[in-house]
Amino acid sequence: MKLRLFPQEPAGLILLSQLAQQIVLASATMAEILGVSAEDHGKLVEDMHNHEAKSAELHFALLTHMRTSFVNPLPREDMYALSRYLNEAMEKMDAAAELVGLYKLERLSKRAADQLEIISRQAELTVDAMGRLNNLDDLEDYWIEILRLAKRAERTHRVWVADMIADMKWAQYSRHRDIANQLVEVTKDMRRIATQVGSIIVKES
Length: 205
Description:
The structure is a single chain. This protein has six helices and no strands. It is mainly alpha-helical. The protein is globular, with a radius of gyration of 18 Å. Mean pLDDT is 91; it is low at 1-8.
């Protein structure tokens, strides 16, 4: 694979890394939410809203940067797609936290913690990858590892849903299924980011 040399315009890659970092922070906040009683959800859910607001701010900052910068480190359509998927993943994390608060859920399945572990790992890898998009030869392992984690998340989701069907009444199942669906969708957005990176690697090879 040829080495792609980008112009020295790193601001876009820094913004993408910061977007991914918001998901790392959101994973930690979500873990806190799942570990406290319902009466303590309020402040932590507000913290999650703040992560989402920061993500939106970074997303729009990147759009402004792309419009005003003469040279971008990647084609604009690729940078936009990466930013959009990162922001959408953050929106789904925010939705999951808000639903836990609204439903006053406590003691979620350990599968929730498993999914958060996967999301956190995906996000950590993505923080690093976004900052290294100026050397595509280093990113094939990232692409492969994110896809592996996404498959693990899909399996975890299926087992979680099966457990809920077996153990819960309909109303309880419905509430917990909403959370499970939001979390697995976050892992799918992280997979979309890796797939976009894979597309860039293929185009530049």
